[in-house]
Design a protein that fits this description.
This protein has helices at 2-23, 32-38, 102-122, 173-188, and strands at residues 45-55, 60-70, 79-88, 94-101, 127-136, 141-149, 151-158, 164-168. By secondary structure, the chain is α+β, with helices and mostly antiparallel strands. A 4-stranded antiparallel sheet has the order 1-2-3-4. Strands 5-6-7-8 form a 4-stranded antiparallel sheet, covered by helices on one side. α3 (102-122) runs antiparallel to α4 (173-188). The protein is elongated and about 60 Å long. Residues 2-28 have low confidence and may be disordered.
Length: 190
Amino acid sequence: MKKLVILIILIAVPSLSLAQEELIDKGPSSTQLESFLSRKGRLMVKDFYRLGETFGEGRTSIIFDAIVISEPGLQNKKIKGIRIEINEGGRLERKTFSFLDLEEVEGLSKAIDYIIELAEKWKGVEREPYTEVSYSSKSNFTVGFFQKEKERSGFVKNGVAGSASLFIETERFIMLKKMLDKGIMTLAGK
């Protein structure tokens, strides 16, 4: 009987381990910008174009920069995108960054369009369930809003572990979209 129990355990444990591995999020694939920036032993040129800044509740802010990265002698192979910096003020100051490739910026801009439209549609409407609408990028930049009954708030977050976030009025999404669209236009000419 003991041998049968041991045999069952020996068969079941590896199967459970495999099942758990499939459920574990291996993390998002990195962006081209992140991959390029992580290279060591190479000279690189980084051009930053300030797109704007807005503030959230407390002493928090979000800054958008268009970024173009290249290696000297290989300027025809530029990598373009947006760097998003979130600063949390207060007792535990924290600064985090996310990088979005140009293709992903266009998708984020469209997602914010939808968020703006939906937030306006739900304004003053009592929603019984807690509802959250959000978009997350490959580099774990998340933007969205939540609403419970008539209470709602927008949020922006960088990262998963050690993340930084800020809460904003949903009307400020218009400003975020304008900064992203300015970035798309700026990068088109670079």
